[in-house]
Amino acid sequence: RNGMIGNIYSMGLALQALEATRKFYAPRKWDCAQAFSVVSAHDYQQPMAIAQVLPALVGRTYLDAAGLDCAATEATSPNRQLPLSPVLGTHGVPRAPIEVHYCIKNTLQGNFFHYCTLVTVPSGSTLLRVMEVAAEKDPQNFSFQTEQTSWGTYVTSIHGLAASTEDRTYWQFLSAGDALDEGVGTYKPRAGEHIQAVFSTY
Protein backbone atom coordinates (compact mmCIF):
# COMPACT_ATOMS: atom_id res chain seq x y z
CA ARG A 1 0.00 0.00 0.00
CA ASN A 2 1.38 3.39 -1.06
CA GLY A 3 4.78 1.77 -1.64
CA MET A 4 4.93 0.06 1.77
CA ILE A 5 5.80 -3.63 1.72
CA GLY A 6 4.76 -5.13 5.05
CA ASN A 7 5.98 -2.44 7.45
CA ILE A 8 8.90 -0.03 7.58
CA TYR A 9 11.12 -2.68 9.18
CA SER A 10 10.54 -5.29 6.47
CA MET A 11 11.19 -2.82 3.63
CA GLY A 12 14.96 -3.30 3.47
CA LEU A 13 14.90 -7.04 2.91
CA ALA A 14 11.81 -6.82 0.69
CA LEU A 15 13.54 -4.33 -1.64
CA GLN A 16 16.65 -6.51 -1.78
CA ALA A 17 14.60 -9.62 -2.56
CA LEU A 18 12.51 -7.92 -5.25
CA GLU A 19 15.57 -6.40 -6.90
CA ALA A 20 17.52 -9.69 -6.84
CA THR A 21 14.62 -11.70 -8.31
CA ARG A 22 13.32 -9.07 -10.75
CA LYS A 23 13.60 -11.36 -13.80
CA PHE A 24 11.64 -14.17 -12.13
CA TYR A 25 8.38 -12.36 -11.44
CA ALA A 26 7.85 -10.58 -14.78
CA PRO A 27 5.41 -9.55 -16.14
CA ARG A 28 3.95 -8.75 -12.70
CA LYS A 29 5.34 -5.38 -11.66
CA TRP A 30 6.02 -3.61 -8.40
CA ASP A 31 6.38 0.15 -8.12
CA CYS A 32 10.08 0.43 -7.36
CA ALA A 33 10.10 4.25 -7.25
CA GLN A 34 7.19 4.40 -4.84
CA ALA A 35 8.78 1.83 -2.52
CA PHE A 36 12.10 3.68 -2.53
CA SER A 37 10.34 6.98 -1.77
CA VAL A 38 8.86 5.39 1.37
CA VAL A 39 12.32 4.24 2.48
CA SER A 40 13.97 7.57 1.63
CA ALA A 41 11.38 9.54 3.59
CA HIS A 42 11.77 7.47 6.76
CA ASP A 43 14.24 8.45 9.50
CA TYR A 44 15.76 5.07 10.33
CA GLN A 45 17.28 4.92 13.82
CA GLN A 46 17.83 1.24 14.53
CA PRO A 47 21.10 -0.33 13.35
CA MET A 48 19.41 -3.54 12.14
CA ALA A 49 16.90 -1.67 9.98
CA ILE A 50 19.67 0.57 8.57
CA ALA A 51 21.83 -2.48 7.78
CA GLN A 52 18.98 -4.04 5.80
CA VAL A 53 17.90 -0.96 3.87
CA LEU A 54 21.35 0.44 2.93
CA PRO A 55 22.25 -2.31 0.40
CA ALA A 56 19.00 -1.69 -1.49
CA LEU A 57 19.62 2.07 -1.52
CA VAL A 58 22.99 1.57 -3.22
CA GLY A 59 21.60 -0.95 -5.71
CA ARG A 60 23.01 -4.06 -4.09
CA THR A 61 21.77 -7.00 -2.02
CA TYR A 62 23.32 -9.17 0.68
CA LEU A 63 24.02 -11.68 -2.12
CA ASP A 64 26.57 -9.23 -3.56
CA ALA A 65 28.64 -9.32 -0.35
CA ALA A 66 30.43 -12.52 -1.45
CA GLY A 67 31.82 -10.76 -4.52
CA LEU A 68 33.08 -7.58 -2.84
CA ASP A 69 36.78 -6.76 -3.12
CA CYS A 70 37.46 -5.22 0.26
CA ALA A 71 41.12 -4.49 -0.57
CA ALA A 72 40.01 -2.19 -3.39
CA THR A 73 37.65 -0.26 -1.16
CA GLU A 74 39.09 2.95 0.18
CA ALA A 75 38.39 3.30 3.88
CA THR A 76 36.52 6.47 4.67
CA SER A 77 35.20 7.77 7.95
CA PRO A 78 31.77 9.34 7.77
CA ASN A 79 31.26 12.66 9.47
CA ARG A 80 29.81 12.04 12.89
CA GLN A 81 27.16 14.24 14.35
CA LEU A 82 26.39 14.51 18.02
CA PRO A 83 22.91 13.30 18.92
CA LEU A 84 20.34 15.95 19.65
CA SER A 85 19.43 16.50 23.26
CA PRO A 86 15.99 15.16 24.22
CA VAL A 87 15.26 18.55 25.79
CA LEU A 88 17.14 20.92 23.49
CA GLY A 89 16.62 21.20 19.75
CA THR A 90 19.04 22.56 17.18
CA HIS A 91 21.16 25.52 18.34
CA GLY A 92 20.33 24.72 21.99
CA VAL A 93 16.79 26.05 21.78
CA PRO A 94 14.48 24.29 24.29
CA ARG A 95 11.94 21.99 22.67
CA ALA A 96 8.31 23.01 23.14
CA PRO A 97 6.42 20.72 25.54
CA ILE A 98 3.65 18.50 24.19
CA GLU A 99 0.96 16.47 25.91
CA VAL A 100 0.43 12.81 25.05
CA HIS A 101 -2.47 10.65 26.27
CA TYR A 102 -1.07 7.28 27.31
CA CYS A 103 -3.17 4.26 28.32
CA ILE A 104 -2.41 0.67 29.23
CA LYS A 105 -5.04 -2.03 28.89
CA ASN A 106 -5.38 -5.74 29.67
CA THR A 107 -8.61 -7.65 29.03
CA LEU A 108 -6.80 -10.87 28.13
CA GLN A 109 -5.57 -12.58 31.27
CA GLY A 110 -5.38 -12.34 35.07
CA ASN A 111 -6.82 -9.24 36.70
CA PHE A 112 -8.05 -6.95 33.94
CA PHE A 113 -7.03 -3.30 34.07
CA HIS A 114 -7.26 -0.07 32.08
CA TYR A 115 -5.31 3.00 33.22
CA CYS A 116 -4.79 6.30 31.43
CA THR A 117 -2.65 9.35 32.12
CA LEU A 118 -1.70 12.63 30.45
CA VAL A 119 2.06 12.98 30.02
CA THR A 120 4.01 16.16 29.22
CA VAL A 121 7.32 15.70 27.38
CA PRO A 122 9.48 17.88 25.10
CA SER A 123 8.45 17.68 21.44
CA GLY A 124 10.51 15.12 19.56
CA SER A 125 10.57 12.75 22.54
CA THR A 126 10.20 9.04 21.89
CA LEU A 127 7.34 6.89 23.12
CA LEU A 128 9.84 5.27 25.48
CA ARG A 129 10.33 8.67 27.13
CA VAL A 130 6.54 9.08 27.43
CA MET A 131 6.40 5.70 29.19
CA GLU A 132 9.25 6.68 31.52
CA VAL A 133 7.51 9.92 32.54
CA ALA A 134 4.23 8.05 33.10
CA ALA A 135 6.09 5.54 35.32
CA GLU A 136 7.73 8.40 37.26
CA LYS A 137 4.32 10.00 37.85
CA ASP A 138 2.53 6.77 38.81
CA PRO A 139 4.91 3.83 39.29
CA GLN A 140 2.22 1.62 40.81
CA ASN A 141 0.23 1.56 37.57
CA PHE A 142 2.65 2.47 34.76
CA SER A 143 5.88 0.68 35.71
CA PHE A 144 7.35 -1.36 32.86
CA GLN A 145 10.37 -3.43 31.87
CA THR A 146 12.28 -3.63 28.60
CA GLU A 147 15.09 -5.55 26.97
CA GLN A 148 17.44 -4.48 24.21
CA THR A 149 17.30 -6.41 20.94
CA SER A 150 18.97 -5.95 17.57
CA TRP A 151 15.75 -4.19 16.53
CA GLY A 152 15.85 -1.79 19.47
CA THR A 153 13.99 -1.59 22.78
CA TYR A 154 11.39 -4.31 23.34
CA VAL A 155 8.76 -3.90 26.07
CA THR A 156 8.56 -7.15 28.02
CA SER A 157 6.26 -6.13 30.87
CA ILE A 158 3.82 -3.35 31.86
CA HIS A 159 2.07 -3.08 35.23
CA GLY A 160 3.72 -6.37 36.22
CA LEU A 161 2.12 -8.26 33.32
CA ALA A 162 4.82 -9.91 31.22
CA ALA A 163 4.64 -11.00 27.61
CA SER A 164 5.16 -14.72 27.01
CA THR A 165 6.18 -16.72 23.98
CA GLU A 166 4.51 -19.79 25.55
CA ASP A 167 1.18 -17.96 25.81
CA ARG A 168 1.84 -16.11 22.54
CA THR A 169 1.23 -12.77 24.26
CA TYR A 170 2.87 -9.39 23.75
CA TRP A 171 2.33 -5.68 24.36
CA GLN A 172 0.97 -4.02 21.22
CA PHE A 173 1.18 -0.23 20.85
CA LEU A 174 -1.59 1.61 19.02
CA SER A 175 -2.27 5.18 17.96
CA ALA A 176 -5.96 5.96 17.43
CA GLY A 177 -6.55 2.20 17.08
CA ASP A 178 -3.82 1.57 14.48
CA ALA A 179 -0.66 -0.42 15.27
CA LEU A 180 2.51 1.67 15.33
CA ASP A 181 5.01 1.12 12.50
CA GLU A 182 7.97 1.77 14.82
CA GLY A 183 9.15 0.60 18.21
CA VAL A 184 8.91 2.56 21.45
CA GLY A 185 12.57 3.62 21.23
CA THR A 186 12.13 5.41 17.89
CA TYR A 187 8.45 6.36 17.59
CA LYS A 188 7.87 10.05 18.35
CA PRO A 189 4.30 10.89 19.36
CA ARG A 190 2.60 14.07 18.18
CA ALA A 191 1.04 16.67 20.45
CA GLY A 192 -2.35 15.46 21.66
CA GLU A 193 -1.83 11.94 20.31
CA HIS A 194 -3.58 9.03 22.05
CA ILE A 195 -1.23 6.08 22.53
CA GLN A 196 -2.48 2.79 23.92
CA ALA A 197 -0.49 -0.24 25.07
CA VAL A 198 -2.75 -3.29 24.80
CA PHE A 199 -1.86 -6.75 26.10
CA SER A 200 -2.49 -8.89 23.01
CA THR A 201 -2.07 -12.35 21.55
CA TYR A 202 -0.75 -13.57 18.20
From TrEMBL:
It is found in: Secreted. Keywords: Cobalt, Cobalt transport, Ion transport, Secreted, Signal, Transport. Residues 124-196 form the Transcobalamin-like C-terminal domain. One of its GO terms (cellular component) is extracellular space. One of its GO terms (molecular function) is cobalamin binding. It holds the Pfam family Cobalamin_bind. It comes from the Eukaryota. Cyanocob(III)alamin binds at N7, Q52, Y154, V155, L180, Y202. Signal peptide: none annotated. Its main location: secreted. GO terms for biological process: cobalamin transport; cobalt ion transport. InterPro entries: Cbl-bd_prot, Cobalamin_Transport, Transcobalamin-like_C. Belongs to the eukaryotic cobalamin transport proteins family. PANTHER family: COBALAMIN BINDING INTRINSIC FACTOR (PTHR10559:SF15), TRANSCOBALAMIN-1/GASTRIC INTRINSIC FACTOR (PTHR10559). This is IF factor. The lineage of its organism: Eukaryota, Metazoa, Chordata, Craniata, Vertebrata. The gene is Gif.
